[in-house]
Amino acid sequence: MLKEEEFKELLTKAQSADIAVSDQAKERILETNLNLVRSIVHRFTNRGYEWDDLFQIGCIGLLKAIERFDLGFNVKFSTYAVPMIIGEIRRYIRDDNPVKVSRPLKELAFRVHKTQEKLQGNLGREPTITEIAKELSLAPQEIVSALEAVQPQVSLYEQTFQSDGGDAIHLLDQLALVDGQDSGYFDKLALREVLTRLPVKERTVIYLRFFADKTQAEIATTIGLSQVQVSRIEKQALKIIRKLLQTS
Prior knowledge:
- By secondary structure, the chain is an all-alpha fold.
- The protein has helices spanning 4-14, 19-31, 34-41, 51-68, 77-95, 103-123, 129-136, 140-149, 185-195, 200-211, 216-223, 227-247, and strands spanning 159-162, 168-170.
- A two-stranded antiparallel sheet has the order 1-2.
- Helix 6 packs across helix 7 (129-136).
């Protein structure tokens, strides 16, 4: 454990504008408080989530506590950090994407977000996808795929509010056809909702192929695969879509 004076010094550095100094101090405070995160994560086991994922989210909560803690608060840092960590984990569980995302993709999305924050601090503005990709030595398509994969999905049947009569009003109830819109509009909405349930690679190929009107050869060049691989992914994606539409 850190002594009080050492902690105060590290916290001041962690909240400084010097990125290098700040990151080093944050890492030191994190290292000495990991057991706190572990003890909290154990409260959320057996809920269908991997321990490592919850631990990573807990660390994000701890980082937020480091960034926001004021030495003028009349409480210990651990007392302040515990509800921040718990809140971050509960938010993750509440907002967890129903489309299961692989751990490598989640880890990439986490790296993208951290790089985004770092570049925003350095540039004084929101960084572009190209700038983030260059910083991580990745293709822009990989950055986009990672960010899209962790976006929360909204169901057409999500309740938006309750009417005066007590009946629930859903998002679907508030959608209407506009002049000139064909009657198959809601069928297209159903298809789009099914597309969100595809694995990232399959969804990317389908989007480029049928929404961006790209050829298989153009898609292969864009995402760095062979045309044969793109063709195989497209066939697999269409097979999944047919199955999901039949069961929905």
